[in-house]
Each structure stands twice: as structure tokens, then as C-alpha cells.
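hey m, so remember when u said the C-alpha cells were messed up on ur end? i reran from scratch. heres the input so u can diff it against urs
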Amino acid sequence: SSGINAEWPLRPGIMDKSKHTAVKFCGIEKASKAINDPFFSSFEECGEETFEITLKKKSIKHDLPIQLGFFVYQYAKMRMLSFYYDVVDRFVDRQDYCVLEMDTDSLYLAVSGMDLDSVVKPEMTQEWEEAKKEWFPRIDSKSNATYDLRTPGLFKMEWEGDGFVGLAAKTYYCFHNNSPDKDKHSAKGINRHFRLSKEDYLKVLNKDPKQELQVNKGFIVKGQSMYTYELTKKGLDHLYVKRKVLDNGISTTYLDI
């Protein structure tokens, strides 16, 4: 399997400023008055007669170019869909590839050959060579390869190996049979210091009931104080709601709802 990444260097955040709040710390007297404020949202006791008060803002200035961020993400999705339907599904027979995971700007694909070139339909080889110029970086010279490396919309090789275990969006393990140091994994919602292995992902994929709970640890700053926190959660989960999981517990299909 291999991972192909379409780099989009301009990725502005689409921020909802209407959810912004104002936070202040005060004593019990001012906290009592703040509770009756029409903009009051919540409060939390931080210490002896010290409170953290959260207030909704009286006025919000919407000055972010959200239309720019919106169209960047939508065009990225459109480019990804175009790559799948106009390139992969057109030049490669469906029995020779399998889509493993797709995000806004990346696609993990398993092929039956050594690379994508080796599984292109024989009668479309010449046309494929022309199409590659539009979708992949040039490799005819070092200068062209360097230039195309940062060209938006072109698909670059992000990772390649021997296998892929996908549990959910942004939760997967890519592995090499002979070079485990080149393995790559992602686990959304789990601290990076956890050493997850291929076996951990396979246990969840096979619905092993002996799943261990994991504890996320970190620091949080409130006012002028710093606190540590611990959050116990089920790290890897076999539940997947974006597609229908078939009876074998591995393959998926579209939601017929």
C-alpha cells in the first residue's frame, strides 16, 4: 500500500468567532455580580475565594476572510475526487487497487503491483504517461522535481510499504514487513507518547475484548497557575459510523440510508 499526499500550502483556519468568550478571575464579591450579568456563561472555583468567570462577548467583529478558507478546502476535496475518478478509476482496473483511507488532502491506496505504474491498463500506457504530467511531480531532472515538490494540486508520495490497518478516520497503522522503524501510524485523540504497535490495531480490528484503557496526560494553564490532568479513555475503537462494515468485520461499503 502507499500513501499519496496533495499538498495545499494555503490552509487558513475557518474560525467561528461567535463562540469566542472572555475569561476573568475575581473574588467572591465580583463573582456574585458576574453571575447576574446577561452575558454570563459559566464559572469555576479555582481556589479559596477565587473564581474563573466565563462571559460571552458583548460585541464580535467578524473580520476573517472565511470565504477564502471555505473555497480552499472545497477545491481540495474536488481535486481529490477528480484524482480518484479521472485518474485511478480510469487507468487502473478495479481488481488491481483498493482505496484504504482518504482525507481532505491525502489518499492511501493498495495496489496489486509494485507501484501505480505497474497496474495501469496496458492499452492506456501512453495516455497514462501524459496524464502523469498533470497529476504528479516531474522526475526528469532534479530542478523540476524540487520545483514541483511544493506545487499545489500535485500528488506526492508520502509513504509506501507492505500493509495498512485502518480502524477509523485518522486512526490507522502503516507497516513494513522488514523495516518496522519505517512504520507510520495515527491515532486521533491519543497522546503521541503512547507506543502503539501493529498488534494493537489488529486486536481492535478483530474485536479483541481484552482492550486496554489508555490515560492521556498533559498540562493546562488557567490564569497564572498550571495544572496537570489525566483523562482515561478507550484509545482504539472498532466502531466506525461513516461507512457500513461488512460481515467480515474488515471491508466496508457505502451507507444505504
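this time it looks ok to me. Helices lie at 28-35, 66-91, 125-135, 142-148, 198-205. if urs says something different then somethings off w ur setup not the seq
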